[in-house]
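Protein fold
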Amino acid sequence: MKTFMKTSLLFLMLCCALQLTSADTMSSDLANSICCFNETSKIPLKQLESYFWTSRICPLKYTVFVTVRKKRFCGNPENAWVKRAMKHIDKKSASNSAK
């Protein structure tokens, strides 16, 4: 009976530790998240500086573009203009890092 109690207590402690760890990760994701629910029309490539993906806690996986003026716009990664814009930014970043 003592072994069962010790095992149960250990299992309970591990579950609590796991819950605390995942809750901390989720709260940090929530604090740093930007979710997109609609997308913008095309943005001129010369205005784009960078992009990143929406958080994993968002219902839609979108691309968030950041302009040189630090404004953010959402784009559906399935759209051709979004794919083109991402490639443009990737090439620009690669050439800047090579310098």
